[in-house]
Amino acid sequence: MITATGNKHDRGSNAGFTLIEMLAVIVLIAIAATVAAVSLRGRGQGQLDVAAQRVAAGLRDTRTRAMATGKPQWFSVDLRARTFAAPGRDPRALPADTKVQVTSAAEDAGSAGVARIRYFPDGSSSGGNIELSRARREVRIDVDWLTGAVAVHAGVAPNPEGPDGGS
Known about the structure:
Blueprint: H1 19-69, E1 73-78, E2 83-85, E3 92-93, E4 99-104, E5 114-119, E6 128-134, E7 137-143, E8 150-156
Antiparallel strand pairs: 1-2, 1-5, 2-3, 4-6, 6-7, 7-8
């Protein structure tokens, strides 16, 4: 049938969305919701990784200063305030609710609640590691005592209640 407008089919007032168009919109909404959920959930992990990289940069800066000045330098971590500082730099805060644990030489212990890692003029260090953990995720920054090299290792924090969840 040909209508007065010259079209074979005139939808007129019955125009609407097809089933395929509606399915396409539903799929797009589902994709957007998934991307939003993943980005919100992964933000904490990203903050922990960024904090670990900043700590590693501070350690490397401390090593460079020790070699440049020819004098020992200390990298400090305030366990109570959850801040860290390279010599001559302002303290930087770690993300909220981040747990911090430092293993270093006993003679490099600072004041109460402050842990330190020492670098010597030849680039070596007292060694140790700094563990940052948050929401079952852990990042460990290792400092080699012989070379002073800094390495960052990310992983899942062990469950404190054991592998069976304490049951």
